[in-house]
Design brief:
heterodimer, A: 177 residues, mainly alpha, Four Helix Bundle (Hemerythrin (Met), subunit A), 80% helix, B: 464 residues, 16 helices, 2 strands
Chain lengths: 177, 464
């Protein structure tokens, strides 16, 4: 009962604010609604007893990435490029992506229906100790079964970071000299 | 009874402790924050050889309430060009983030708000860092130059110092081996020593970083009043401003609680493992249990001692009332203490055996948090404000590398523990970290010296 209420609450907030995020003209409003979406999704993670995923979503996405987004929105005047560049290709790509995503959702719902004892509207919940202790299990699987992808991802991030520093440095050098 | 009512009843029965604690936090923390402000003003006055607030109540004891009333009935101004929605939302975000993160803090062994979640410390740190969003959005929505510069400074500062704080937390987590707040404190109990003694450098890094994170002097650049009027809160007034203020002070309590949990032994009393042997065991236990009662009683004695020196009769009566209230609280507190000391049987005895550890734990916890906040204030009145580029240099060139080295050092110390013994391993690795710190400071001095001689004309875009 409570589980379903919470699930529909978080899901509704996520979907609604995602829609609002896309339709707002003001970039800052979009960012705020994206934050709401991310928080609601984090709530669903928590309901699935994925505590670590919940807090990682909040720390990384809301506390880290969204803060940087907002920082960029504050620094860059977004209304200027909007008048100059027409995003012509964007509509086509967007339709394509939306179609692909819709198909995926339908496929997931269809295959979920094939499972015995599962309806179309499966509410998100899990037994209390399904994933406990959460962070330990996550750490164990990251550092045993998925060590190689983990290391590859970290190297990728390192490369991206070094690349960003190099690009920023070279620009600054020309500016100052 | 229909199923809906039954479900609601079931919900209330299962969750009533959490609900009550949540309501208490939302109700009490703003009041406590108000009194923290009073303590801060009094301390500042004391350090500057003044009296501080003296008019409202004896020694200004009612000042926070007067301030709150004043802020509530003040005109609520929203600038014309402000973004109304976000202007309205931003202070609420700051306040909510600070209050929510308190939900996972453990005040005593049987006294937590949320249940012991597996990722407690991450929850507190992560959710309290969302308060930054309130500052940034508020600064942007005000549509004012001062506000936006304050907001930008705040973002840069918090993002920089959060890294250092996170790495300092990792050092303590390495020692405890868990993310659950309760088990971190239990780990300190079983290792017999607070982690501040095993990882002093990490504690120092966390202290500096948490001052920067709460936007307090000497790192209060987002609201540097001599340059930016009031920084991100320039356009705010009345109760919206008060929400920011409360959020900031609630955040101080949160970082104090995190530091207490990670480094200062949480709710543990001093020397928790020293029981005095079989002979003195009971004396030691009862003695420590009596400390809170005596402490509160002494506050009452002091109030009554000061009561005769008040200038106005009503203030004398007020001081008497406060003193007597302290005695009453101490007397109520003494009941479970005495019952436990006498090993009383029956409902009252077992109930007090259940309640007393929580009460005492909360006492020690709050005392440590108060000490931490006192250090914050002390530093505020002692150190001048840093320049923005100095702030960034301290964060990126000194604190973050030092924190990384410190994480490694703590790991090495844990590996060497079996070979060298705990204290020798700790001393060796800490010496290594301190040497790194000295090197980093010298490097930074050289860099700033060469930079200032080479490019004396270059201005910093953030310097305002």
């Amino acid at each position: 009962m409570l589980d379903s209420i919470l699930f529909y609450f978080f899901g509704g907030v996520a979907v609604l604010s995602a829609a609002l995020m896309v339709t707002r003209r003001n970039a800052m409003h979009s960012a705020v609604f994206l934050i709401t979406t991310l928080l609601a999704t984090a709530g669903i993670f928590l309901q699935l007893r994925a505590e670590f995923l919940f807090i990682a979503q909040i720390i990384l996405y809301v506390g880290g990435i969204m803060v940087l987004f907002i920082f960029v929105i504050m620094l860059v005047r977004l209304d200027v490029p909007l008048h100059h560049i027409r995003f012509r290709l964007q509509k086509f790509v967007a339709v394509l992506v939306a179609l692909a995503l819709g198909l995926e959702v339908v496929a997931i719902l269809y295959s979920a229906r094939q499972l015995p004892g599962q309806g179309l509207f499966v509410t998100g919940s899990a037994p209390a100790d399904a994933l406990a202790p959460n962070s330990q299990k996550l750490g164990e699987s990251l550092f045993s079964s998925y060590l190689l992808p983990f290391e590859i991802a970290s190297v990728l991030l390192l490369v991206a970071m070094v690349g960003a520093v190099v690009m920023a440095k070279s620009k600054k050098g020309t500016d100052e000299s | 009874m229909n199923p809906t009512t039954q479900a609601i009843l079931h919900f209330l029965v299962t969750w009533w402790v959490e609900l009550v604690c949540g309501v208490v936090i939302v109700a009490v923390v703003p009041l406590v924050a108000g009194y923290v402000v009073l303590v801060e003003r009094k301390l500042m006055a004391d350090m500057q050889a003044r009296l501080g607030p003296m008019r409202v109540g004896p020694h200004g004891l009612l000042q926070p309430i007067a301030d709150a009333v004043k802020l509530l009935i003040k005109e609520d101004i929203i600038p014309d060009n402000a973004d109304k929605l976000i202007f309205w939302l931003a202070p609420v975000i700051s306040m909510t983030a600070a209050l929510t993160s308190m939900g996972a803090i453990y005040f005593g062994p049987n006294f937590e708000v949320a249940r012991d979640i597996n990722i407690g410390i991450l929850f507190v740190v992560g959710v309290s860092s969302l308060g930054l969003l309130g500052i940034v959005l508020g600064g942007w929505a005000s549509n004012s130059h001062y506000s936006i510069i304050g907001a930008m400074r705040s973002t840069a500062q918090l993002v920089s110092y959060e890294t250092a704080a996170g790495l300092a937390i990792v050092s303590a987590l390495l020692l405890s081996g868990t993310l659950s707040i309760r088990e971190i404190v239990v780990a300190q109990y079983s290792s017999g020593v607070w982690f501040v003694f095993l990882a002093p450098v990490a504690f120092f890094i966390y202290l500096v970083a948490s001052i920067a994170e709460t936007n307090r002097a000497p790192f209060d650049l987002p609201e540097a009043e001599s340059e930016l009027v009031a920084g991100y809160m320039t356009e705010y007034s009345g109760f919206r401003w008060a929400l920011y203020f409360l959020g900031e002070y609630a955040n101080m309590i949160v970082v104090g609680s995190v530091a207490t949990t990670l480094f200062l032994g949480g709710w543990l009393r001093p020397f928790p493992n020293w029981t005095g042997g079989p002979a003195l065991h009971r004396v030691v236990e009862v003695g420590w249990d009596l400390v809170p009662v005596v402490f509160i009683g002494l506050i009452g004695v002091y109030c009554i001692y000061r009561a005769g020196k008040q200038p106005v009769p009503i203030q004398t009566w007020f001081m008497w009332a406060v003193g007597l209230a302290c005695f009453v609280v101490a007397a109520i507190y003494a009941v479970p203490t005495v019952l436990v000391a006498m090993h009383a049987a029956g409902v009252a005895g077992s109930l007090s055996a259940l309640v007393l550890p929580g009460l005492n734990g909360a006492f020690w916890f709050l005392l440590k948090v108060a000490g931490y906040i006192y250090v914050f204030m002390w530093l505020r009145f002692t150190l001048p404000r840093y320049r923005f580029d100095q702030l960034m240099h301290i964060g990126w060139y000194i604190l973050i590398p030092l924190a990384i080295v410190n994480v490694l050092a703590v790991g090495v110390a844990m590996l060497l523990e079996n070979q060298l013994g705990r204290w020798l391993a700790m001393v060796v690795t800490t010496a290594f970290t301190l040497a790194t710190a000295l090197y980093l400071v010298r490097l930074n001095d050289k860099r700033t010296a060469s930079a200032s001689s080479a490019a004396a004309v270059t201005t910093d875009s953030y310097a305002g």
